[in-house]
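cron nightly-structures :: item 1 of 1
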Amino acid sequence: MPILPAEPDFFPPDLWDDPTAVPRTSAEAVWWCLHARPRQEKAIARELRKLGVAFFLPQVLKEDRTPQGRKIRSVIPLFPSYLFLLGDHYDRLSALQGNRLVTVLEVSNQESLERDLRQIQKMLSSGLPVQPEPAAPVGSRVRITTGPLTGIEGTVIRRGKHDQFVAVVRFLGRGATVDLQDWQVEQIVVPSQQP
């Protein structure tokens, strides 16, 4: 199997050059979050680059060792199964062609996402080692944002495989658990208590 060169994290190459705003390909260009099928992020990025559609796929270097002791280096997505597209409605439809995406998530707060993506890009370009972190660590309070349980609040009690976790919701002094994906919840910021 041939070894492919490392995919660029973003396209076009000047995507992050302007410190005040991301260059827009059209007046209607907005950020979209692409939820990809497992291990399809780089293939989607290659297709978007061929189409000339702006995207951001944050990647990190992962080092492992084989049982024989050899080092293996891999470039993996920082957020498995997710990448970000900057484009209009037609660019979004172009990304949906084929069978590589699960869904396209609409971004309601464009400025906040762009600020977060700029921070991630700055961290990645610093040369310092960057490690992925779970969205909601054990013990954090979360609120369900999508699906039939929207608005319910609970506490993360453990993390399972495939970025799933279990949240507990108190009802009559008892708990109920439900498996959720990271993208279905948001962490609740608890204001610090003043003495």
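cron nightly-structures :: done
Residues 10-125 form a domain with the Alpha-Beta Plaits fold (CATH 3.30.70).
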